[in-house]
Design brief:
The chain is α/β, with parallel strands linked by helices. About 25% of the residues lie in helices and about 30% in strands. The strands form five sheets. Strands 7, 8, 9, 11, 12, 13, 15 and 16 form an eight-stranded antiparallel beta sheet that branches. A six-stranded mixed beta sheet has the order 2-3-1-4-5-6, with helices on both faces. A six-stranded antiparallel beta barrel has the order 17-21-19-18-22-23. About 40% of the residues are buried.
């Protein structure tokens, strides 16, 4: 390996043990290169490795040999070949996959991600940028700020990268003219006024010739700034990490013996010390830090991104996916939130699908309630869309099966990011950055009919089942306000049909709410999701030839119409129990109306929500005035 003159004296003076101990303490800078095709990203990194003396002798010999055989730099060494490892990359002279390279100097360690420039590989670029502290955006001096420059700048802003070096490359092809550099600088700053990138530095360079890569170039005496390596070694990144908001997602419970229970995981943000009071979420139980272990040793405090083991003074039921936080500094605990989504699947987003959402150390089921808009990353313009395709970016509203413990991505990358996984193929189909929680009142209604997309492969059809059971499959949807008497009617109708030899099932709203749909709330979006599930279940039971009696308040007229569409008009009969609100209040032995009046309950029909009439097939006032046979 070619010696690093900056490190060799230190090694001789300190000795190997002390030198290695000192080397371990150096901080790590993760960076990526971005830019259009042929802007010279791979060449820049190759030149950086070469000029900083980080290549082994055999690597250098292979590079010189490959440059003559498959290189694209004429008589010069093609430094891009150090990064373009795939056969297709060398044949086409482009980067396809993300290539990672590690090197270090006497001041800092580095991991470089060389990301693709092609638009079709945007998801690869996002992958490389997800953990980066700094981005180097290369601009071809001949072309200036182009569409792909804007695309990558927007993605860098979206992913929260705070430091950007704009490297104006190929200055040798433009006569090293200062006016060219200044014009590109002005154009880039004009575009980025709409983006959130707090630290931008500009460097003119020639990656092929080595100007301003490691040492200042002699060809541009008008440039008085630092070289690429100088900036990488000195740029401050410690302040970029969140040391204020303590967030410790629990990954693993360690129970080696009866006297010890530890909670292991990676500290996402904040600094924690022994003796401090913490709260376990979502339970809300409090305790104090008894001990902290890191790398097998007890420590007094810990900071991100350390992997640690915490033990508490008190015995608390804590599981994987729970989070330890400070009492007066807690994340959002919500099921509904907005996020920016980068779609990474070849198959476009189906808004009716259910996904698995992985956030910190927990996995939950999730659905996409709506797509607010899609962003054209080339123009930063917003537009309405019904789906997202590969590499497209949109703002969406999501709901999870149980609450997430999250912060906004801008505040905390670790607790504000997630991935979506296809629940059938288990492919990672999107990455997301949480914007904020969504108020329940503003949630979109989501009740859609998608059964027509499913192929029925059963060899027994519904008519055959009905013939064997001796009945016509039907769903009787009994609706009305709470305490209107609809449950009494439903169960008496069940008894009546059963006595006639019918096979009948009652879907009671209260029972489903306490079991299958217990994670759903009572705002409109969750109420509609509850009814969608019930309607799909009723249809499946009808397809088996069974009679279903569904008992739900379902106050929204449009929602009941959609329920009818899901179940099927030929097998749906709606029965409205029209009991006045005063009678309902008098019958209410659960005192739900009183709690709604006092504000304990929200979104309560008859108090906060009007019941919309006009869709029922049969309207009845009370059980006493009807003949059950008339209902069927």
């Amino acid at each position: 390996m070619i010696d690093d003159a900056t490190q060799q004296p230190n090694l001789q003076a300190l000795g190997i043990d002390q030198f290695l101990a000192q080397d371990e303490k150096k901080d790590l800078l993760r960076l990526l290169t971005a830019g259009s095709v042929d802007d010279g990203k791979s060449t820049l990194i190759g030149r950086l490795l070469h000029d900083s003396k980080k290549l082994y002798d055999d690597q250098l010999a292979a590079l010189e040999r490959d440059s003559k055989r498959v290189g694209n730099a004429g008589e010069d060494i093609d430094y891009a070949l150090l990064l373009d490892g795939l056969k297709a990359e060398r044949e086409q002279g482009i980067t396809i996959d993300v290539a990672y390279r590690y090197f270090s100097t006497s001041k800092r360690k580095f991991i470089i991600a060389d990301t693709p420039g092609h638009e079709q590989y945007t998801r690869n670029m996002v992958t490389g940028a997800s953990t980066a502290h700094l981005a180097i955006i290369l601009i071809d001096a001949r072309k200036g700020v182009i569409t792909q420059t804007k695309r990558h700048s927007f993605l860098i802003s979206l992913l929260g990268i705070k430091h950007v070096i704009v490297a104006v490359n190929k200055m040798d092809l433009m006569g090293y003219g200062q006016e060219v550099f200044e014009q590109i600088r002005a154009d880039f700053l004009d575009f980025t006024t709409r983006l959130d990138i707090p630290d931008i530095q500009f460097i003119p360079l020639s990656a092929l010739k080595g100007d301003n890569i490691v040492d200042p170039g002699e060809n541009m005496p008008w440039y008085k700034g630092l070289s690429i390596l100088n900036i990488l070694e000195t740029i401050p990144i410690s302040a970029d990490r969140n040391f204020v908001d303590f967030r410790f997602p629990v990954q693993y419970i360690s129970r080696p013996n009866l006297d010890f229970r530890g909670y292991a995981g990676r500290l996402a943000s904040g600094v924690i010390r022994t003796g401090e009071e913490v709260v376990a979420l979502p339970s809300g139980k409090t305790s104090r830090i008894k001990s902290i272990e890191s790398m097998g040793e007890s420590v007094d405090y810990a900071f991100p991104p350390q992997s640690i083991m915490i033990s508490l003074v008190d015995e608390i039921d804590i599981s994987r996916g729970d989070m330890l936080v400070r009492k007066n500094n807690q994340p959002h605990v919500e099921r509904h939130f907005e996020a920016m989504l980068v779609w990474m699947d070849e198959e476009e987003l189906d808004i009716d699908k259910q996904f698995i959402l992985k956030h910190t150390t927990q996995k939950v089921k999730a659905r996409i309630d709506s797509i607010r808009y899609e962003i054209d990353v080339n123009t930063i313009q917003r537009s309405e869309t019904a789906a997202l395709k590969l590499n497209e970016i949109g703002r969406v509203v999501l709901t999870t099966s149980r609450p997430l413990l999250f912060d906004s991505y801008r505040k905390n990358k670790q607790t504000g990011s997630f991935i979506l996984i296809d629940s059938l193929s288990h492919n990672t189909c999107a990455v997301g950055m949480i914007i904020n929680r969504v108020s329940r009142e503003s949630l979109p209604s989501k009740l859609t009919f998608s059964a027509s997309q499913v192929i029925d492969r059963s060899l027994v059809n519904t008519m055959e089942r009905e013939k064997v059971l001796g009945q016509k499959a039907m769903t009787y949807w009994i609706t009305g306000l709470h305490a209107s008497g609809k449950n009494d009617i439903a169960y008496k109708l069940e008894r009546f049909l059963f006595d006639q030899g019918k096979t009948v099932i009652v879907l009671d709203g209260g029972k489903l709410r306490s079991g299958l749909n217990r994670e759903l709330g009572f705002d409109k979006a969750d109420r509609d999701e509850n009814l969608r599930r019930v309607a799909e279940m009723a249809k499946l039971l009808n397809d088996q030839g069974l009679i279903v009696i569904a008992v739900f308040i379902s106050p929204d007229k449009e929602t009941r119409e959609q329920v009818k569409e899901i179940i099927g008009r030929g097998t749906y009969k709606e029965i409205f129990v029209d009991t006045d609100i005063q009678t309902c209040r008098e019958r209410d032995n659960k005192e739900l109306y009183r709690m709604a009046d006092e504000g304990v309950l929200r979104h309560f029909p008859g108090v906060h929500i009007n019941y919309e009439v006009g869709t029922a097939d049969i309207v009845i006032k009370s059980l006493a005035e009807i003949n059950l046979a008339d209902l069927i």
